[in-house]
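Lab notebook, bench 4. Still working through the backlog of constructs that have no structural model yet. Next entry is a single chain of 83 residues. Request: give me the structure tokens for it.
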Amino acid sequence: MNPLETAIVILWFSGNDFIHHVTSGQREYALRVDMVDMAGAAGHALYGRFSLGDAQSQYTIRVKDFEGTIGWSGCNGLGCVAD
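Model written out:
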């Protein structure tokens, strides 16, 4: 890994630790993802519940209560679990 790649990895995991800490408490958090495809069509996914696992779980994203326009509610093996 070159120094820039190493810095990006360190920042990525530091941010994940913070998000895990915030989302693992008593409060519930929602996650909204807005996307635009190559043709310019826009869509979104809204999960009513969202949390991020710790380093031991490889920062697995847990989502629940999908609403949206993107046409799929699961994560399809993208490092997340749809409860």
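Notes after review: The mean pLDDT is 78. The chain has one helix and four strands. Flag for follow-up if needed.
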